[in-house]
Structure formats: C-alpha cells, structure tokens
Write a structure and sequence with these properties.
410 residues; 2 domains; nine-stranded mixed β-sheet; eight-stranded parallel beta barrel; 30% helix
C-alpha cells in the first residue's frame, strides 16, 4: 500500500514520484503485494470450507495482473469469450474458468464449451438452446436471480427483480421442466446480487434460497455465492467483515451439504475486493483555477480513464503526493474531458500547485478496464509493482492506436 515514509509517498519502498517520473502520467500503478494479501485474507476467512476463489476478471484484465492472481492459486470468472481467452493466455486451465455471459450470441457459449470451461447460464431461452444442443453431454451451472436488492449504487445491483441478470427463483418450475426435458446435468448454482455488500445477512439470505433450490439437482459440484464484498473508499467506511462472513456462511454451507449427502465446493467471485485497493491512478495538475465560488484543480486525466465518479457517484480519496505536508485548502478536482468531468468536489487537499502529482486511490477495479479514448485522448500506461520493482505491463497509447483499424477513404 502507498505509505508516507520520511516525507515521501512510497509503494513497496519505491518513491511514487520517481515512478511517475520514469513512466509519466496519467499512470495506473498496481501493488501486487496488496492483491496477494487480499487473496490470503479470503483463504483465511473460509479456512474451514472447500473454498474456490474465482477472480471476477472484468474488474481488471491486464494479462500480467491475471498471471499474478493465477499464481496465487485462484480460478477466474469471465463474462465474455475474450476474457476467457485472456484467462487461458494468463495460464488458467479451462477447468479453472467459469464463463457467466449475459445476453450474448449463443455462438459465444458454444465457443466456451469448445474451450472446456464451466458454463453458467442466466436465461431460460439460452438454457433451452443449450439443452437442445448438448443434452446430458456437457454440464452447466444456473445463475439465479434471488430478488434481493443489496449493495451500493442501483446500477451495480444485480439481484433485484428488475435486473437483467439471472433466472428468477420464481421460475424454478420452468427451469426444472427444461432440465428434465433435455436431461441437462446441472453442476452448479450461482447467485451474485451486486457490489458493495457489507452485511453478512445478505449472503445468508442468498444461501437459504440456494440451499432450498439445490435439492432439486442431485449432481451439483459447487454452489457459487458471487461476491460484492465492500472495501473502504474513505475513512471509517463500513466494509464487509470477511471473517464474520466466512464463519457464518461456512457453517451454513457445511450444515447444508451434510444434509445434501455429500461435500460440495464453495465458490466466490471477488473482483473489486482483490484489486481495488491495490490500484492508484496518478495524474498531474495542469491548472489551478480560482473562481468566486470554487477553486478547481484541472488534471491531465478524466472520465475516459476513471469513469466511476461520474457513472456511479463513486468516492475516490485524492492525495497530493507532491506536497504531503502543505497546508490544506478546499478544491474541486476535475479532468480534461469536454464534459462535466469531476473526480471529487470540495475536497480538503494539501495545497495543490500546477505540476503537482495527485493520486486517486482505490483505482484498481473498473478503472483501466472501463477506460476509453473519448475526446481522442490516449489511454494511460499501467505499471505493476512486484517484488519491490516497478514493471511496465502496458504501454501508453500512441496516436497510431487511435487510427488502428480505421479505413481511410478519399
């Protein structure tokens, strides 16, 4: 983690300003050590369960980060066939990959079967197509919608009744009908209700639904509780008590599979929990602009690099790493995109001067993975700090990248 040591911010003993000087800004930096610690915390919390961690790749798909997570003994959850291909390239075996698509062309699912990955279906129509094509020759998992509204912003809540995700638990008779019609082997049941869930009780409610349904499927190998574990985005934020969750959900799970008749695997799909706090977006101050009511800090990045504040009203702490001991003033930090483009309003920061480098915290999840070239601006470089070394893991875009794939006509 980034720490202030002897008047300078450091990550794994490396001076942050030196990293920014070497690689330029805007710059994404990830701390591999923090990712490893987050993985280990989950293993410790669920130590009494047969836990399988499936990293939710959509949070951050850089191939080097995927390799690091694979090296820690994790599997992976993917939502597109290209994420599945990235996973294979990163070293994940097909049997370590859970493919959970939504509203995709059926050919993507066929390609997933050809790859040999676990298939997770969230639509009755697709389940019917799957049964017609594969019958009992290839197992699949079913994603259920539990009709539970939980988590943070409504846009990232996926288990409520109006969500596009999952087959409604109220449609269980139709599910059973299709499964029996084609003799489909169901090897897993899955629920993911969204992101930023801090209450253990939400997961226990999910477990009651899953355990109630599971008895209709005698060939289960695993039950997948998704993720949504909340991390702290600001001081004193409420977070998911992973150890309380592991204790209570683990016990409920063991009690269930003892009555089910055999031991099952407990799967979870942490994404943000593994990489959010490990990531930083470093930006340089272009202008400090005072108006009668607001002092703006304009930086060389924007919603094209970190869309969460504008899309989800997400809070990201902002730190002036160039002036760690300066007197504090109130600023609104904005980007260089030609839209309303605010990283943080009315923030107390150590005095910001033009040229100062700021750090946007908790930027590892859904930062670069949702980045764009809006306004024809280039995407930043990515750096992984591993073993006390800063390693470039993605080059900064160039102008040629903007033109790649375009066909110029007279």
């Amino acid at each position: 983690m980034m720490e202030l040591i002897n008047g300078a911010y450091q990550i794994q003993g490396l001076n942050v300003l030196e990293i920014c000087k070497e690689f330029g800004t805007p710059l994404y930096v990830y701390d591999a050590e923090k990712i490893t610690k987050q993985i280990q915390s989950l293993k410790n919390a669920f130590s009494d369960s047969d836990l399988k961690i499936k990293y939710a790749a959509k949070a951050l798909t850089n191939i080097s980060v995927l390799k690091h997570i694979q090296q820690q003994g994790c599997g992976i959850d993917v939502v597109s066939i290209n994420e599945a291909k990235l996973a294979i390239k990163a070293g994940f075996k097909a049997e370590d990959i859970l493919f959970t698509p939504s509203c995709v062309d059926f050919n993507e699912i066929v390609e997933g079967v050809d790859m040999g990955v676990y298939i997770n279906l969230d639509n009755l129509s697709v389940l019917e197509k799957f049964g017609k094509k594969y019958g009992n020759t290839y197992p699949c998992c079913i994603r259920l919608n539990p009709h539970i509204l939980a988590g943070g912003n409504y846009k990232i809540s996926t288990g409520h009744g109006n969500s596009k995700f999952g087959i409604s638990v109220f449609q269980m008779p139709q599910i059973i009908e299709v499964v029996n019609k084609y003799k489909i082997e169901i090897n897993g049941l899955h629920i993911h209700t969204g992101s930023e869930i801090s209450e253990t009780d939400v997961y226990l409610k999910m477990s009651e639904i899953l355990f109630g349904v599971a008895r209709d499927f005698p060939a289960l190998k695993f039950i997948d509780f998704g993720s949504g574990f909340k991390v702290a985005y600001k001081e004193n934020d409420m977070v998911t008590n992973i150890y309380d969750l592991g204790l209570k959900l683990g016990k409920a799970f063991r009690d269930f599979y003892e009555s089910y008749g055999r031991k099952l695997e407990l799967w979870i799909e942490p994404g943000k929990y593994l990489v959010s706090e490990a990531g930083y977006l470093f930006v340089t101050t272009n202008v400090v602009k005072s108006t009668p009511s607001v002092t703006f800090v304009g930086v060389n990045s924007g919603l094209n690099h970190l869309i969460r504040p504008m899309m989800y009203d997400a809070h990201h702490e902002i730190v002036n790493v160039s002036n760690p001991v300066g007197g504090q003033k109130v600023y609104t930090v904005v980007g260089n995109i030609c839209e309303t483009d605010t990283f943080g309003s009315d923030r107390k920061l150590n005095e910001v001067r033009e040229g100062d480098i700021l750090a946007l915290m908790n930027a590892g999840a859904y930062g670069y993975s949702m980045a764009s070239t809006f306004n024809s601006r280039l995407r930043p470089a990515e750096v992984l700090i591993k073993g006390g070394k800063a390693i470039l893991i993605r080059q900064r875009d160039t102008f040629d990248d903007l033109l790649r794939g375009q066909m110029e006509i007279d």
